[in-house]
């Protein structure tokens, strides 16, 4: 342990001289900073260099020892104070202990051994406090790496029905006191979809950003008692998905039901705006009922995470009260039938039928589909049928996990159709593309490395070369040259992800012989160079 710094404050010159010259501070493992003749002078010295231990007289002019000790306690709470007192100052010494002094010593007949023994005892206390702080820091590090992950897995298993309520209680017991308290379960979420849309970065970087925001938000909520100034309120936070949390708030019985209800309102109305500002996006919360029965926690958690779905259609920032049961859930068979229809149309490359099924999913019903059902169908289609690069599929899955509104769900399916347009040549939503244009798309998709000219493509489908470009734009809304570049770029990304080919080899494989032109086009369309993209995989 480092040597601790000491100083003395006393208005008597001989006392200051005794402490400075007669006490072997260095040999005892201390550093002597000097002496002051009153509290005011001591503060000036401490402004320049802060000691660990201060020995101070009580009766002094300008600023006495009690006033000085109170100032030190308020400004430098980690500095330890030992009082030097005379026999007739016992009452003052008792008051000094109330102010946080670690000890008091009678100046009359005080030996150097007694002085060093008192300082050594305080030094040992300082060491124990530091060890405890390091332990707490270690626990926080463990929480961020292990406990956070364990809590996330627990929530998922609770929803799947594979975890018992007793397991949740064990986790909670390590975070909050469970004896004789009021409780409420809240689910809290925010719009991560808008965050991901604004951030032009690789998927793994975006995931790290989202995970960090979620963890920081959870930690801020667990420290809410400090922010509210009310130590009797505790919170335990569990992560769900990447932009949702469920929160257990608790309050002791002696505070009363009305007090806890008031604190719940404070959290919802005051903290919601704070987190909205911190996260830079919209936030929403479901407030569950207050209970005194910990055995109901599993049920309340499932209800809280289900009820927050109301935001999906309504856009409300606060949800509470009884369940309205306003969603339509087709059930397991109905879900499988819808997935089968989508997958069959994709396998058969029947783009028009696929678009029609997607339109049914993205068209409001009365009552509307359950958000869980809609997201489950989309995930199943993505897992079983979709083709494309790992980066594309990973990005679509991540975007799906972040969806919190009906509009975002529609936008997600639009992205899926746009990517299918690149992979398969799918163009148009509700109208049939001319057979010749479909044939051109298929040729380009299958032979992306060929040096296609407008004349070659026109000849292959028996169209006039002067007319084919105009017809392609009219039918698809995209220039033919742009479409060819997009298909080549898509394949280039796949090759960079899945092979060890060099950049120039990838360029040549997709039909671009000019290496510099390929790098420039890649950077313009993807946002990073081919080398940066390969390093990020």
UniProtKB/TrEMBL annotation:
InterPro entries: CheY-like_superfamily, Homeodomain-like_sf, HptR, HTH_AraC, HTH_AraC-typ_CS, Sig_transdc_resp-reg_receiver
Subcellular location: Cytoplasm
Annotated keywords: Cytoplasm, DNA-binding, Phosphoprotein, Transcription, Transcription regulation, Two-component regulatory system
Positions of the HTH araC/xylS-type domain: 438-536
Domain Response regulatory intervals: 5-122
Principal location listed in the UniProt entry: cytoplasm
PTM-bearing positions, type 4-aspartylphosphate: 57
Highest taxon in the source lineage: Bacteria
PANTHER family linked to this entry: HISTIDINE KINASE-RELATED (PTHR42713), TRANSCRIPTIONAL REGULATORY PROTEIN HPTR (PTHR42713:SF3)
Name of the protein in question: Response regulator
Species the sequence originates in: Paenibacillus residui
Upper lineage: Bacteria, Bacillati, Bacillota, Bacilli, Bacillales
């Amino acid at each position: 342990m480092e040597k601790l710094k000491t100083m003395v404050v006393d208005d008597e010159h001989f006392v200051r001289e005794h402490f400075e010259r007669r006490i072997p501070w260095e040999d005892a493992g201390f550093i002597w900073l000097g002496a002051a003749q009153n509290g005011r002078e001591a503060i000036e010295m401490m402004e320049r260099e802060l000691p660990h231990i201060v020995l101070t007289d009580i009766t002094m002019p300008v600023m006495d020892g009690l006033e000085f000790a109170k100032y030190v306690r308020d400004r430098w709470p980690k500095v330890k104070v030992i009082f030097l007192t005379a026999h007739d100052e016992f009452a003052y010494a008792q008051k000094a202990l109330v102010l946080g002094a670690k000890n008091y010593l009678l100046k009359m007949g005080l030996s150097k051994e007694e002085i060093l023994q008192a300082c050594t005892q305080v030094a040992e206390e300082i060491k124990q406090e530091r060890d405890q702080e390091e332990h707490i820091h270690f626990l926080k590090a463990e929480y961020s790496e292990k406990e956070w992950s364990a809590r996330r897995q627990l929530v998922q298993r609770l929803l799947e029905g594979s975890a018992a309520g007793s397991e949740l209680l064990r986790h909670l017991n390590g975070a909050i006191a469970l004896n004789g308290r009021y409780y409420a379960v809240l689910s809290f979420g925010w719009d991560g979809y808008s965050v991901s849309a604004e951030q032009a970065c690789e998927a793994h970087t975006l995931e790290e950003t989202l995970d960090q925001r979620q963890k920081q938000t959870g930690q801020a909520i667990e420290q809410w008692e400090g922010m509210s100034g009310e130590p009797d309120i505790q919170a335990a936070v569990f992560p769900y998905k990447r932009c949702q949390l469920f929160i257990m708030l608790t309050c002791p019985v002696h505070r009363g039901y009305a007090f806890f209800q008031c604190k719940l309102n404070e959290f919802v109305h005051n903290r919601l705006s704070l987190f909205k500002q911190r996260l830079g996006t919209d936030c929403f919360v479901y407030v569950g009922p207050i209970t005194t029965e910990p055995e109901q926690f599993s049920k309340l958690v499932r209800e809280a995470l289900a009820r927050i779905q109301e935001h999906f259609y309504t856009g409300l920032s606060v949800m509470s009260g009884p369940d309205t049961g306003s969603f339509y859930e087709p059930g397991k068979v109905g879900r499988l039938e819808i997935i089968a229809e989508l997958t069959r149309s994709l396998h058969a490359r029947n783009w028009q039928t696929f678009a029609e099924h997607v339109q049914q999913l993205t068209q409001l019903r009365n009552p509307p589909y359950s958000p869980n059902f809609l997201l489950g169908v989309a995930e199943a289609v993505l897992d079983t049928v979709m083709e494309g690069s790992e980066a594309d599929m990973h990005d679509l899955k991540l975007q799906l996990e972040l969806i919190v509104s009906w509009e975002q769900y529609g936008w997600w399916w639009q992205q899926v159709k746009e990517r299918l347009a690149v992979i398969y040549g799918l163009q148009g939503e509700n109208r049939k593309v001319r057979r010749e244009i479909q044939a051109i798309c298929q040729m380009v998709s299958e032979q992306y490395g060929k040096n296609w000219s407008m004349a070659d493509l026109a000849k292959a489908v028996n169209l006039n070369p002067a007319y084919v470009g105009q017809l392609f734009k009219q039918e698809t809304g995209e220039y033919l040259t742009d479409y060819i570049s997009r298909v080549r770029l898509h394949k280039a990304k796949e090759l960079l992800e899945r092979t060890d080919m060099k950049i120039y080899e990838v360029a040549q494989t997709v039909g671009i012989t000019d290496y510099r032109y390929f790098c420039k086009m890649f950077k313009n369309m993807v946002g990073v160079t081919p080398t940066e993209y390969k390093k990020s995989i």
